[in-house]
Amino acid sequence: MPGFFEAINNLPTSKNKTHTVCINGQQVVVTLAKKLEVQKHGEDAYHWISPTEFELKPQPKRQNVVYRTLMRKDPGYVFHEGDPHWPTGIGKGGYTWQIKSE
User: Fold this and answer.
1) Domain check: are 27 and 49 in the same one?
2) Rounded CA gap, 20 and 23, in Å?
3) Which partner from 32, 55, 82, 90 sits 20 to 30 angstroms from 11, CA to CA?
4) What DSSP character marks residue 8?
């Protein structure tokens, strides 16, 4: 096997893998960790902050989230065995869904 080891030594070396992402139509070379982060969030979730840097777009804040709570009211819904998913009628000492004012 005189030619086998010579052929192995003469094989072309592999090139380093380059990782690219496309942010707003521009291709940029990044590290593997940065590419995985961009794939996790999606390329549309990023924007350019300078010609060479990009970051996640800020997420919109949810404001004025209001939840309704079950409160006692006269008259109100009367529930079968206290189950709020099974109202039996409207009566004295029942409950209603109301927005809690603070």
Assistant:
1) yes
2) 10
3) 32
4) H
Say yes or no to pLDDT of 102 above 60: no
Return the higher-pLDDT residue of 14 and 9: 9
For residue 72, give the amino acid letter. Answer: R
Instruction: Give the integer Cα–Cα distance in Å for 19 and 27.
Output: 10
Which residue from 58, 87, 60, 62 is spatially nearest to 75, judged by alpha carbons? 87
Q: Give the position of tokens 């989230």.
A: 65
**What values do phi and psi take at 15, rounded to 5?**
-85, 155
Compute the radius of gyration of the chain from its Cα atoms.
32
Q: Give the whole-angstrom CA distance, residue 42 versus residue 23.
A: 10
For residue 39, what are the domain limits? 17-59
What are 49-98's pLDDT values in tens digits? Answer: 998 899 999 988 877 777 888 888 888 888 888 888 888 988 888 888 88
Residue 35: inside a domain, yes or no? yes
